[in-house]
Amino acid sequence: MKNGTSLSPFHLAIPVNGIVETERFYVDTLGCRVGRKSDRWIDFDFFGHQVSAHVRPEAVSRAPTNPVDGEAVPVRHFGVVLPWHDWHELSGRLRESGCGFLIEPCIRFAGQVGEQATLFILDPSGNALEFKSFRDPQQLFASGD
Question: Which of 10, 30, 44, 53 could covalently link to 16 via disulfide, CB atoms 3.0 to 4.6 Å apart?
Answer without folding.
Answer: 53
